Amino acid sequence: MRVTVLGAGTMGAGIAHAAATAGHEVALRDVEESYVEDGIADIADTLSEGVERGKVEPAEREAALDRITGTTDLAAAADGADLVIEAVPEDMDLKKDVLGEAEGHVAADAVLASNTSALSVTELASALDRPERLLGLHFFNPVHLMGLVEVVVAERTDGATLETARSFVDSLGKTAVEVRDSPGFASSRLGVALGAEAIRMYETGVASAADIDAAMELGYNHPMGPLKLTDVVGLDVRLDVLEHLREELGERFRPPQALKRKVRAGKLGRKTGEGFYVWEDGEAVRPADEAVRPADAASPDDDAGEER
C-alpha cells in the first residue's frame, strides 16, 4: 500500500514510521522543508534507538528509511496514494482545507483519514466531494509503541473505506477499536476527563502531582499518571480538547484554571521543558512545583467571570 502522511510533526512522523516499518511505501509531506527534514530525522533517531536496544535490526532500520520520501509538494505526495492520513494541528478549517486539497490529487477509490483526537469527522467529511471515503484514524503517542488505533466512523463512511482502514491497522500490528463519530470519541473523552480531574485535585491541594500520578500508576496499574501524561500529550492540546468538549457536551468538561495558567505561561509540558513536571532530554526529572495549599486554593467557581 502507498501511504501519504500530511504533517511531519510528532504524530505525522510517528505514523510514517509505523507505516514504513510495516512495509508500506510512505510519502511524508509538510509545508516547510525544515519540518519534513526534522520529521525524518526524528524517525531515524527512533529507529536508531531501537537498534541500540536490540529491538530493530540495522537492515530493518535502513529499509524503513528507504521507504519514506519527504516532500513539500502535496500533489507529488498524494500521487498514487491508496491511503492519505492527515496529521496537521487540531484546527477544523485547516484540516478541511488540507483534506479537500488532497482529495483533488488522489484516485476516486483512495481512502482519506484524519488523525484528529476530538474533532467531528462527519464535519470534516462535509467539505469533501466524496465524504464516504473519509474516516478517522486516531493514533496514540508514541505511535511506534502504542498498540491502539481508534477507527472513527463518520455518518457517511462506507463499508469499503472501513475495510481498507481496518486492513491497514492490522498490517501495522495494532488493534483497531471502532467508534461512532461523537465528541471526543472514546479515548480522548475518557482520557481528558481523568486528566482534568487530576488537575483539579492538584490545584485544590489534595495531593502533589507526583503523588496523584503514583496513585494511578501503583493503585490502578496505569503505565503513566494523568498529570505526566498531560505533559506528554501537551497542555495546549489538552486545553483545546477540553474547550471543544465543553462546547459540545457541557460544563463538566470546563478546563481547570491550573491548566489555563500553565498554557498562558507557555508551560506546555515535555515539548517546552516544563508543565506539571520539569523535562530534560525527554524525561521527567522532577515535579515543576508543589500543589497549592488548600487554604490558598481557588474554588471551582473562581473563574466564573473570566473569559472562556
From TrEMBL:
Boundaries of every 3-hydroxyacyl-CoA dehydrogenase C-terminal domain copy: 184-279
Keyword Oxidoreductase: yes
Important for catalytic activity, annotated site positions: 138
Start-end of Acidic residues biased regions: 299-308
Enzyme Commission code: 1.1.1.35
Organism (species): Halobaculum roseum
A GO BP entry: monocarboxylic acid metabolic process
Enzyme class, UniProt record, top EC level: oxidoreductase
Entry binding sites for NAD(+): 7-12, 30, 90, 95, 117, 141, 271
Residues annotated as domain 3-hydroxyacyl-CoA dehydrogenase NAD binding: 3-181
UniProt protein name: 3-hydroxyacyl-CoA dehydrogenase family protein
InterPro entries named in the record: 3-OHacyl-CoA_DH, 3-OHacyl-CoA_DH_NAD-bd, 3HC_DH_C, 6-PGluconate_DH-like_C_sf, 6PGD_dom2, NAD(P)-bd_dom_sf
UniProt-annotated stretches for the region Disordered: 288-308
